[in-house]
Amino acid sequence: TQLLARLEGRSSLKEIEPCLFADEDSSVLGDILEFHGPEGTGKTEMLYHLTARCILPKSEGGLEVEVLFIDTDYRFDMLRLVTILEHRLSQSCEEMVKQCLGRLFLVSCVNSTQLLLTLYSLETMVCSHPSLCLLILDSLSAFYWIDRANGGDSVNLQECTLKKCAQFLEKLVSEYRLVLFATTQSLMQKTSHWTEGPPPAFNHPGEADVDYRPYLCKAWQRVVKHRIFFSKQEDFKTSNQFSLVSRHLKSNSSKKHVFIIGESGIEF
């Protein structure tokens, strides 16, 4: 019974967003994905899009499952999410929006220690909410500089808390068949590539990580199954057109997608 409770209502990547994950095996549950890119490239907007897909009722094309959103930047925009929901509901009455938001759990964290303690407390919640399907962390790199300063000269101390977070997230995702989306910001990019034109990472999908510089702990690098690189289309600096390269780290396969951000959210 406990096992059935764990697996009931879980959704696969393919179900969460067919446009992005059409090639994924819909029978595979439990996955960790990293959304990586500079600020202003649509990472958080994509999270709102995926959240809306999950919490919308099945009658409106959603999955009608629960989402836990961990906000570490204190930038979560509830009004923006409500706007997206209103555009996607055929009859956007206040009661329908409230029902959707009833499937969303929002948690804020101010430092990596609080994040770790929050994660430790999640197991009970996941057990008692069998329809909780998606875990979102925006962003995992928020405390990087603070942890680095607090750790002094010791890399082990700098990375200690995040390492524990990564290990526990892996356990949580694999045991309860959750999908985890975590954003990280490009802190170590070559600025010249971004100012003079599109970075090499987006010119050739097969070389999607050419300009990617891993700076988070190895424990996190090890658990990530997909990495999705976000960028703003350089030819459309004044427009709302963006691109992403989705890279499956196990098969080393890549796929490029272009999307726009409108008032109603993301459109592919």
TrEMBL record:
Gene Ontology molecular function: any one: ATP-dependent DNA damage sensor activity
PANTHER family: DNA REPAIR PROTEIN XRCC2 (PTHR46644:SF2)
Gene Ontology CC terms, in alphabetical order: centrosome; Rad51B-Rad51C-Rad51D-XRCC2 complex; replication fork
Source superkingdom: Eukaryota
Gene3D superfamilies named in the record: P-loop containing nucleotide triphosphate hydrolases (3.40.50.300)
Organism ancestry: Eukaryota, Metazoa, Chordata, Craniata, Vertebrata
GO biological process, one term: double-strand break repair via homologous recombination
Species of origin: Mustela putorius furo (European domestic ferret)
InterPro entries membership: P-loop_NTPase (IPR027417), Rad51_C (IPR013632), RecA_ATP-bd (IPR020588), XRCC2 (IPR030547)
Domain RecA family profile: 5-186
Record-linked SUPFAM superfamilies: P-loop containing nucleoside triphosphate hydrolases
The name this protein goes by in its record: X-ray repair complementing defective repair in Chinese hamster cells 2
